């Protein structure tokens, strides 16, 4: 059965401009790549997985709360883009401010988020998995270019990073998430697993 076509409106354009503005000073961890590249990538994956305009906007803004202003930012998003977008953005946040994010240890924060994700609404799960797919693909690309040593840029150990993404994959499969998300996530998790086992780039 064909899914309903999604027509993006001026709301999407406004959300894109908003995301570019609030994330302008930020770059992908350990790189010179503007952070907005990740946000656009997540939004694209949401669309490919069947997300509507609200979810695509949430994909653009999924890091805004934890990285760009906490609860005041959330309320601004709610005012501009509505309750549903705000709810998904909050559901994709593993901290509500950068200070709290730094105070928690890597695995404590990730375990708390995994517990949340297991009972999350389908809207939140779809956007969150899109985020994980884009992140883990980037990790694989970094490993292919620079070796497994690039995993040291994360606060957790390489084994914890892999464990986290494997758990996200398991949650996605158990929840019946679209294969457009779980398949690439599974492939990338396997690539990282092999790279850590042999200590070289995945093939």
Verbal overview:
With about 200 residues, the protein is an all-alpha fold. The protein has helices spanning about 10-25, 35-50, 55-60, 65, 70-80, 85-90, 100-105, 105-120, 120-145, 160-175, 180-200. It has a single domain, classed as Orthogonal Bundle (Hypothetical protein af1432). The chain is built from eleven helices and no strands. Helix 1 packs parallel to helix 3, helix 3 packs across helix 6 and helix 10 packs antiparallel against helix 11 (about 180-200). It starts with 9 loop residues before the first helix and ends in a 5-residue tail after the last helix.
Strand content: under 5%
- Biggest pleated sheet: none
User: What would you say the CATH architecture is?
Assistant: Orthogonal Bundle
How many extended strands?
Answer: 0
Helix count equals 11
Overall, the morphology is: globular
Distance between the termini: 36 Å
For this structure, what is the CATH class? Mainly Alpha
List keywords for this structure.
single chain, 203 residues, mainly alpha, Hypothetical protein af1432, 0% strand, globular
Secondary structure: elements and pairs:
Blueprint (H helix, E strand, L loop, with lengths): L9 H14 L12 H13 L4 H9 L2 H4 L2 H12 L1 H9 L6 H6 L2 H13 L3 H25 L11 H18 L3 H20 L5
Helix pairs in contact: 1-3, 2-3, 2-9, 3-6, 3-9, 5-6, 6-9, 8-10, 9-10, 9-11, 10-11
Produce a short descriptive summary.
Helix content is 70%, strand content 0%. It has 203 residues and is mainly alpha-helical.
